[in-house]
Specification:
endopeptidase fold (from Nostoc punctiforme), alpha+beta, globular, 5-stranded mixed beta sheet
Length: 184
């Protein structure tokens, strides 16, 4: 089991096209050492993950979501440190929910609804004001934290909703797709 520790500290996340945003540092525990997630080269042996947040005094486990933990493990095993142009934030959200990541039309795969409350595993969408253009998708972890892939073929990014809204300020409409939102 791989432990991912999400820090309170922010970092600048840069995708392959040079777009920058602020997110949280993420570390992995391998043995007794902590290493920055992005600095690790291979996760071929990862079958499961445990997500924790570092608080002032201790590590607090995120609410358990098997879909999210399995999705992160698969993403790390298959896509980490590899440049897959098609594997982006939308493909990651689809991977977590067992949907095909190849269809890029978000409204055909998700039943997006307006709401304020999220449960671990829910997906937040950032869309253009007229709801026609998809900007970003992130999966809710709990405790105010979201995880997504930053850019096409980019690293896993851990961000708060405020961090995401600051970067996507031109996308004023935020939709949450319920966890069981497959289109029949």
């Amino acid at each position: 089991m791989l432990m991912i520790v999400v820090s309170r500290r922010r970092q600048t996340i840069i995708d392959k096209d040079g777009l920058q945003a602020r997110g949280r540092l993420a570390f992995v525990r391998k043995g007794e050492r902590l290493r920055i997630l992005q600095a690790c080269e291979s996760f071929e042996d990862v079958t499961s993950v445990r997500l924790v947040m570092k608080t002032w005094r201790k590590l607090v486990r995120f609410p358990r979501s098997e879909k999210v933990e399995k999705g992160i493990a698969v993403a790390l095993r298959r896509h980490h440190a590899k440049v897959h142009q098609w594997f982006d934030c939308h493909a990651f959200a689809c991977l977590v929910h067992g949907l095909s990541p190849y269809q890029k039309v978000w409204h055909k795969e998700w039943n997006a609804v307006d709401c304020k409350v999220s449960e671990p595993g829910d997906v937040v969408f950032f869309l253009s004001n007229d709801r026609s253009l998809f900007r970003h998708a992130a999966v809710y972890l709990g405790m105010g934290m979201y995880v997504s892939v930053w850019g096409a073929g980019g690293p896993l990014a851990f961000m708060t909703l405020d961090d995401l809204q600051k970067f996507y300020r031109n996308a004023e409409v935020v939709h949450f797709a319920p966890r069981n939102s497959k289109i029949a």
